[in-house]
Design goal:
alpha+beta; 4 helices; GIY-YIG endonuclease
């Protein structure tokens, strides 16, 4: 009998790994990753939240995205990644990203380098009548 996973979305994860360890992420790992600027041992400042492995070919996954950011984003010292299960769709990964960006969009403690600041679908959901009807 197959072992049941502890979490529905996340298969495995690593947090606060040094930038130099980016090549240790298995190839084609799909999921969410976070880049940090480590100001001190207790202060990992979030500078970027992203997703990887959402295209048909995977594009190298999280390791490939970290390689790209190594050349383009200078102010990160550490990263975390959260690998999703194989049955999680690309759309669901995008939804996770939109949720996280939506949560942290106006947080003054972090200066996200992301150009994407939210999700059209989340905005549409907020405007939908379903929420208004539930409140009445």
């Amino acid at each position: 009998m197959p072992k049941q996973s502890l979490l529905r979305l996340i298969k495995r994860w690593k947090r606060y790994e040094p930038r130099k360890n980016r090549t240790r992420v298995p190839g084609n790992t799909r999921g969410v990753y976070v880049l940090y600027n480590n100001r001190s041992a207790e202060n990992h400042e979030v500078v970027y939240i992203g997703v990887a492995g959402i295209g048909k070919t995977g594009g190298g996954g999280i390791q490939g995205r970290l390689r790209t950011h190594d050349r383009r984003i200078r102010n990160w010292t550490h990263y975390s990644f959260f690998e999703v299960h194989d049955n999680i769709t690309s759309e669901e990964i995008r939804e996770l990203e939109a949720l996280l960006l939506g949560i942290f969009r106006h947080d003054s403690r972090i200066a996200l380098a992301n150009k994407q600041k939210g999700s059209k679908k989340l905005r549409l959901l907020r405007k939908s009548s379903h929420w208004n009807e539930a409140q009445q």
